[in-house]
Amino acid sequence: MPLVEASLLDILVCPACHAPLREDEDAAELVCTSADCGLAYPVKDDIPVLLVDEARRPG
């Protein structure tokens, strides 16, 4: 089951670098597709939390 609707995912971008986001259903996160950024934003109660301060850093 998708974390967010496909139409919403099409317009969401990373707040830090404006790259598209992809779903990581196992971790319940939306992950930045930029190789330089890679922040992972949590999805809580079906709502993406697109705050840089709440994002998990890559690595």
Average pLDDT taken over every residue: 94
The DSSP helix count reads 1
For the CA atoms, what is the radius of gyration? 10 Å
Order of helices and strands: HEEEE
Q: Strand share of the residues?
A: 25-35%
Tell me the structural class: alpha+beta
What does this structure look like?
This protein is of the alpha+beta class and 59 residues long. The chain is built from 1 helix and 4 strands, in the order H-E-E-E-E. The protein has one helix at residues 6-11, and strands at residues 21-24, 29-32, 40-44, 47-48. The chain has a 4-stranded antiparallel sheet, with no helix packed on it. A hairpin with a 2-residue loop joins strand 3 and strand 4 (47-48). The longest helix has 6 residues, at 6-11. It starts with 5 loop residues before the first helix and ends in an 11-residue tail after the last strand. The mean pLDDT is 94.
Task: Give me some keywords for this one.
4-stranded antiparallel β-sheet, 10% helix, 1 helix, 25% strand, alpha+beta, 4 strands, 59 residues
Topology:
Blueprint: H1 6-11, E1 21-24, E2 29-32, E3 40-44, E4 47-48
Antiparallel strand pairs: 1-2, 2-3, 3-4
